Predict the 3D structure of the following.
Amino acid sequence: MRWLDAVRVVLGVYAAGAREILVQLVRRLRGGFVEPEFPPQPGRVALVTGGSEGIGFATAKRLARLGMHVIIAANDDVTGTEAVRQIRKETLSDTVEFLHLDLGSLSSVREFAWAFVRRGLPLHLLICNAGVMLPPPPLHRPAGPGFEEHLVTNFLGHFLLVHLLLGPLGAGGGAGRQARVLLLGSAVHRAVPRGAELRFRPGPPALAGYAVSKLALVLFAFRLHRVLGARGLDASASAVDPGVAGTGLFRRAPDVRLLRALLGRLLFKTPDEAAWTTLYGALAPELEAVGGLYLHNEAPARALGAAYDPALQRRLWAQSCELVGLPDLSRDLE
């Protein structure tokens, strides 16, 4: 991405965040934060990446309370184990477990997926929630030297994970219900200017990489939905925009942390509130057999226009397949 585009993206990130916070403030002042109800989900299996804290933890806890077998996948064994203990205590569910997964390491993704497949479980919900923003310099370069960390951890790791779990997802569909894949995007995907190159190589400023990774997830969700249908899998895929929530995502963004400390209760969603849109996409009966959506504030919404560009979706998919060493399953769409 050129410097000028990168600067435009950073300015766009702040603008998108400000707009989202304003929308949330108006909604809160109008009393619009009313917790939705969802039907029980006994006997179904959900995998939540990044489920050990923040929005992912809130999502996993609600799914467990609804009777699902919930698998939390995260890269910190201590927080993951504690999350399971806390959810089991609060929900009285004994079908919550933790499995180690480092989305920044493609070898870790492969090991996790192989271990999951060997268990023979169907997968009814795959919630790709995990993400990083402004991470510290990594100790390893999982996809090769010089790769942009946001794109690898937020997008490419999930891209590979979904491909490797297509078998369990196919087994999760049936009996009138589809398996569902939800990929967490963000309003900041709108900050990427039309025509900007989606590069996997790093370049300053780092915040631009975060916005590009979120656009990549939305592009992936839309094309994935078409691929699932073309391959005859009883599954759907959609993108989720959880809004701006008071979570640890902003631990390396001091300006946002200050705003949260001063006015967090008014401007920011709680993790539980931010999880509502994910849960809506995962559980709402009216979304059965419906996918390829961009979901925001517990309803279908409109993503950035470029996200619907089939050529851009196709290029990103083909490049990603090459990077992770997979055949391109989407070629027969054209």
